[in-house]
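Q: Could you fold this chain for me?
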Amino acid sequence: MAIYEDALAQLQARQRLRRLALPAGADFTSNDYLGLATCSRLRAAVADALARGTGIGAGGSRLLRGNTAEHEALEAAAAEFFGSESALYFGGGYVANFAVLSTLPQTDDLVVLDELAHASANEGARMGRAQRAKARHNDLQSFDEQIVAWRARGGRGRPWIVVESLYSMDGDYAPLRDFMDLADRHDGVLYADEAHATGVYGPDGRGLVAQFEGRSNVLTLHTCSKALGSAGALVAGPQTLVRFLVNRCRPFIFATAPSPLMAVAASEALRIMRDEPERRMQLEALVEFTRTEMRARGIDARVDSQIVPFIVGADASAMQLATALQARGFDVRGIRPPTVPEGTARLRISLTLNVDRATVAALLNALTELLAALSSERTSR
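A: Sure. Below is the predicted structure, expressed as structure tokens.
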């Protein structure tokens, strides 16, 4: 066991040892953006399904006895909602990303990933058959250069352009129109992870790629575990690609199916998206309030979306600040490398309908006070 103890000790010395912590205080950490995880409609939908005799577990893989009417109903509803030919339900966003990029790009293809793409996308591409390359964040020219260089080396397949529509740690958006044009120009595929946009942006919360859904060279990932308040993930795209996943995707074929109850909850969440647009409007107003209040206090942070990164820099300083905010009743977590680039340890402030404006203002007051105290401490040294 010594090798593991040594590795953990090294992480501790670098202020990078991870620990599990229960939720405590006002929620500025979760991805439950619309407050659906505990909403009455999702609770009622699951309770009704249980009363009808819906199983808690699927009992097997989808290709054996684990396929249920609830799974198929969700997939049909998702395809109609997002505007795609077909959809496939996975147990989670990580496995879905991994599954797509380890299965669909073929030997002659090239996968070009944004340098800030999620770990699951990177792992999937690494395990797949295609060549892979990284491009600078949101830099269209960098993506184009990677594709042109690959073609010059004899690349014969299709390039896969892999981006997040809304980045989970920086809260900024991909220039999707430009990336769509790039995919068209190079006979490529745009694969967009909509995890943090689904339910929050686009018509009825369909996501930022909604304008391109249904095209033959567009594939999207929509997680159900964030704004949709349930669990699992949906891959939406051309029917042929979905059928290929069913036949060739090992993480789908050999995995026990997700709980039918979560499929019921996700289906209800899609109905809520259409029935309760006020949730999205309330979140948008909360984001604008936060932006205004941060500027008024002189807090240097970009507020482009419901994900607000406050860059601290040093790992220890970020964790110290997070701990101090937690002690004051605000559940804010520090994010360190390798999740984010070196030297950019941060507080990731997540805005959700689980807090109100008064709570946001209280958080910002506490942050202002703590920053002033830290600045004074450094000056006195």
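A (continued): Residues 357-380 form the longest helix (24 residues).
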